[in-house]
Amino acid sequence: MKRRSFRDLRPRERSPDFARSATATHHHHHHVYVVLLDPAAGKWRGVKAANPRRDPKKPCVYVGMTGLTPEERFANHKAGIKDAYVVQRYGVRLMPELYEHLNPMPFEAASEMEVDLAEDLRREGYTVTGGH
User: Fold this and answer.
1) Integer Cα distance of 120 and 110 in angstroms
2) Domain segments of the chain as ranges
């Protein structure tokens, strides 16, 4: 998988010092995250249809984006707070090895990265849900 970072998404016209300024840091609090799902989630008709090239040896995952930490967001999913049903019911654990290097970032970058990360994982054979 091609690894991207927030730097790859930042508009070129901004100076390198922008990311270090207090104003910029304040806005870099969004995260993308990946949740490992129980294999049963991959049996849903919609999930199967969205992943025609899935590799059965690779796990089923949910890709999301949040203004909270990934840990707080996962806890909310499991508690039924603004949850994605598939994560509440089938979520096993976070998979920081797939997203940690990307975070944190501004909202716009996180929105784009959520889609990109889901597509990258799907291309690698993961069964992916979420990633809107």
Assistant:
1) 15
2) 28-130
